[in-house]
Write a structure and sequence with these properties.
The structure is a single chain. The protein is of the alpha/beta class and 750 residues long. It folds into three domains: 320 residues, no CATH class; 125 residues, 3-Layer(aba) Sandwich (Glutaredoxin), CATH 3.40.30; 177 residues, 3-Layer(aba) Sandwich (Rossmann fold). The chain is 45% helix and 14% strand. The strands form five sheets. Strands 8-7-9-10-20-19-16-13-14 form a nine-stranded mixed sheet, covered by helices on one side. Helix 7 runs antiparallel to helix 25. The radius of gyration is 34 Å and the shape is elongated. It starts with a helix and ends with a helix.
Length: 750
């Protein structure tokens, strides 16, 4: 150990008594300071303009464009220049012979020199800590632990680069060649992960060997054992290669023996890589303040209930959207999207089934046949067409026509199966809310909603303005209830017997004609027995629903509400949720927490009943209730009404449960048209979501709660920011420059 320390001291003296180490350290500190101050000033300017800032620690230091990533992307320029002379200079000057003849082993020589570079790496990290310190002084509630985790990742990367640089330096007597060779090897390690991605065995090996992205987890707030093991294994591998290279140069070891040693090292490296993937060794530490890189407590509680095997099967229609994500080339990327779940379910099996079938779009007729289109897609995406299932073959395994043959996954547990879909938004992949809802559906059961379809009620499969598809059953929309734990059962004249207590609630929306006595009898019986009901009414059709509503002690008033103020449509009523009385959670954020009702009526009490009645919606507009005219200008004699309820919640105890009924004097608040309204900032979606959640007793949709970030303000004023810039870009580099000049002059004088 003493000899290693002596070699380390000697190497450090060589480093710091040469200009190159100081120049690199000064440039590193200067670049780091400039990068940070640019990011900080951009955020400060945004704050000065009145913009709200959130999660400043992450937005400045994290992500692909943050400070830590910028440093990571520049490190490869510094380390090769530092390590290029480690052994090449010794060999070119002949001093390597003195080392070989000294009473130290090759291992001690290599380790001593390497420890010197590890210490130099600490100096580089001190420069980063200086930046972090100014961040602590400039940003409120700075997340120190998160940034320290990112710096740790950068330090491991520095140490890895140094080990590679030392090895390359041992191969040549030319320092420039050593530096360029190091850059070449680093580039190879970055891009090797893209090699052989279409071949299963090669894909896993090359991906593990790749250094690309290894630091990203640290930078984003997650320290994982796999990444730490990777860095340690690569460092040891190249240090041992350096030892072998020195022994070869000293003792003239035959190439055959050297090849055997290198092969053994590669086998050991592969074994370490395999061990790092073993589930019980897959440890992690979330360094973010509120553990945003791991699953929430709600989801963890769900996963702890899993006690049987789980299978996730991905069905990839190769001629449909997102087919490339299911291709062999994207396999590792696709599997990584579920890493957070596989930490808790290490035995979860992930399978892929490639097939082709109709897309139910014009794409099907793009070529002469569906098979030709599939062949072209297979070639483009890298599928083996011979292993792709034909339409008749996939239908024997799984009927995906109900999913429109989209890219879909089937999550299976305990003999039950549910769908996980991809979405047409920026994220595409299902998030924690959707995946957790899928697991909960398997552990318990989905919330089943009966949708009455007897008298021309609103359709949940139509995309027109009046339809309910977007909110209820749009497979490719993340927020659609079908993706949040709800199932929908169409009830028509042939299956009225399904109106029973198995339903979470029954949806009746805007019937177009009177119900028959038989249907009314079934509906009344359902209510009498404690069934939950959501009833959406429309103007001009009160007679169709009042026979049912009257049994609840309520009445739909005839007429149509028209707004006497505003520049919008006359029949557009701006409603608000009565948050002081409603019994479900609804965030009516400030005055903009409005619900738009396109064509509404009043809902009022008519008789007493055993229901507890709570006003749900009201309007504080001046409105006219007109029966005859569709225009305010055509009927000025009607009474102006204020604060009249447009909807009610009804509750009563029925046996062992609470019966819940909601009556809304409008059917359009759930429609595709109103949810897509662009000329008002409405809360229709939030209101409808809260209503559905109320009916499911809060089981669905699953709320993924994470605390709001608290580092949302830059506390430094303009003068403070100027001092930060001066300190990081002038004072620190200046002090380093003065120290370097003093030491170099003192060295020269000696």
């Amino acid at each position: 150990m003493k000899k290693i320390i002596e070699i380390t001291k000697l190497e450090l003296s060589v480093l710091f008594y040469s200009p190159i180490a100081w120049i690199l350290l000064i440039l590193f500190a200067l670049q780091s300071g400039l990068s940070f101050t640019d990011l900080l000033e951009a955020k400060a300017n945004s704050q000065q303009l009145g913009n709200d800032l959130k999660d400043l620690t992450y937005s400045i230091f994290g992500g692909d464009r943050g400070f830590l990533s910028t440093v990571k992307n520049r490190l490869y320029l510094f380390i090769p220049l530092l390590t290029m002379g480690t052994f090449s200079k010794e060999m070119s000057s002949g001093t390597i012979k003195l080392l070989f003849s000294s009473p130290v082993s090759n291992f001690q020589i290599v380790l001593g020199k390497y420890v010197a570079f590890m210490i130099y790496g600490i100096f580089l990290c001190v420069a980063l800590l200086m930046v972090m310190g100014t961040g602590v002084l400039s940003i409120e509630n700075f997340d120190v632990r998160y940034v320290l985790g990112g710096i740790l990742g950068l330090y491991l990367l520095i140490c890895t680069y140094a080990a590679i640089g030392i090895f390359m330096s041992s191969l040549t007597t030319y320092q420039v060649v050593a530096a360029i060779s190091t850059l070449g090897l680093l580039a190879a390690l970055h891009y090797i992960g893209e090699v052989g991605q279409s071949i299963d065995i090669i894909r896993n090996i090359t991906y593990w060997l790749s250094i690309s992205g290894r630091v990203d987890n640290f930078i984003n707030g997650l320290i994982g054992s796999r990444d730490v093991i990777y860095f340690i294994a690569v460092i040891l591998f190249f240090l041992m290669l350096t030892v072998f290279q020195l022994e070869k140069a000293k003792n003239k070891i035959p190439f055959k023996h050297a090849a055997i040693r290198i092969t053994k090292l590669l086998v050991c490296l592969t074994a370490v890589g395999f061990l790092s993937t073993v589930s019980f060794l897959d440890l992690y530490l979330d360094t973010t303040r509120f553990d945003k890189m791991t699953l929430t407590k709600q989801t963890k509680n769900l996963l702890h209930q899993i006690d049987k095997p789980v299978t996730l099967t991905t069905y990839v229609n190769i001629i449909n959207n997102y087919a490339h994500l299911g291709s062999p080339k994207w396999r590792i990327f696709d599997r990584k999207q579920f890493d957070q779940y596989r930490r808790f379910l290490p035995d979860m099996e992930m399978n892929y089934v490639a097939y082709y079938d109709s897309t139910f779009t014009d794409r099907d007729t793009k070529y002469k046949s569906l098979e030709e289109l599939a062949q072209r897609s297979a070639t483009a995406y890298g599928f083996d067409f011979e292993s792709v299932l034909r339409p008749e073959e996939i239908r024997k395994i799984a009927d995906l026509t109900e999913e429109n043959n989209l890219f879909v996954r089937k999550l299976e547990y305990d003999g039950k199966s549910t769908s996980l879909r991809m979405f047409y938004d920026m994220l595409a992949y299902p998030g924690e809310a959707e995946i957790s809802a899928a697991f909960k559906r398997l552990l318990t059961k989905p919330a089943i909603v009966g949708v009455l379809d007897i008298s021309g009620e609103r359709n949940i499969a139509r995309i027109g303005d009046k339809g309910y598809k977007n909110f209820i059953k749009e497979f490719t929309r993340r927020s659609s209830r079908i993706n949040q734990g709800f199932d929908f059962q169409i009830i028509d004249g042939d299956n009225l017997d399904q109106i029973n207590d198995s339903l979470s609630f029954l949806l009746i929306a805007d019937p177009m004609e009177h119900y028959s006595e038989d249907v009314l009898s079934i509906l009344k019986k359902y209510i009498q027995e404690g069934g939950n009901l959501l009833l959406n009414a429309e103007p001009g059709k009160t007679d169709y629903l009042n026979p049912l509503v009257s049994t609840l002690g309520m009445k739909l008033r005839e007429g149509k509400l028209l707004s006497a103020t505003g520049d919008l449509e006359e029949d557009l009523i701006i409603a608000k949720v009565d948050t002081t009385s409603v019994r479900f959670d609804f965030d009516a954020a400030s005055s903009r927490g409005i619900v738009s009702l396109s064509g509404a009526i009043f809902v009022e009490e008519s008789d007493s009943s055993d229901f507890m009645k709570t006003p749900l919606l009201y309007t504080d507009q001046n409105v006219v209730n007109t029966v005859v005219s569709d225009s305010i200008l055509g009927d000025q004699s009607e009474k102006t009404v204020h604060n009249s309820p447009l909807g009610w919640l009804l509750e009563r105890k029925k046996e062992n449960k609470t019966q819940k009924i909601a009556i809304v004097g409008d059917a359009d608040y759930l429609s595709n048209g109103e949810l897509g309204r662009y000329n008002l900032r409405t809360k229709n979606f939030e209101f409808a979501s809260a209503l559905f959640s109320w009916f499911s007793n809060g089981e669905y949709a699953i709320e993924i709660y994470r605390p709001e970030p608290i580092d949302n303000e830059i506390t430094a004023d303009q003068a403070g920011l100027n001092w930060v810039t001066i300190f990081l870009t002038m004072i620190i580099p200046g002090l380093l420059l003065v120290t370097a000049v003093y030491l170099l002059i003192a060295r020269k004088q000696k």
